[in-house]
Amino acid sequence: MLRSICVDFDRVLHSYTTPWAGTTVIPDPPNKGAFQWLTEVVQHYDVHIFSARCQDAHGVSAIVMWMRKHGLTEEVIATDLEVIGRLPEQLDGRYLRN
After folding, report:
1. DSSP secondary structure letter of residue 30
2. What DSSP designation does 47 have?
3. pLDDT of residue 14
4. Who wins on pLDDT, 58 or 98?
5. CA dist., res. 66 & res. 58, Å (int)
6. Is the pLDDT reported for residue 88 higher than 50?
7. Is the separation of the CB atoms in 79 and 42 below 8 Å?
8. 83 phi and psi angles, rounded to 5 deg
9. What does the DSSP 8-state code read for residue 55?
10. DSSP characters for 3-29?
11. Which of 1, 62, 60 is nearest to 28 (CA)?
């Protein structure tokens, strides 16, 4: 059984430079090196991607489609990679900067 790691989608994988426009609007590219890092991490951990976008099924689908659009391999997407909603006790980049 692999240990789990949770990864915030926006600002960790997705560069998130364009202002928020809804759960399904993801216009920006991945952060440099994010997919290479994720490809390595899924070999050692069960990866759970979380985001406020996941408050509905459309947001979850948008994240998966965004990963495919930007070239994350199906092999990585088909691993134990799971897209979930926000964690109840979340520390993300925005929280730490405030």
Report:
1. B
2. E
3. 96
4. 58
5. 12
6. no
7. yes
8. -100, 120
9. G
10. EEEEEETBTTTB---SPP--TT---SP
11. 62
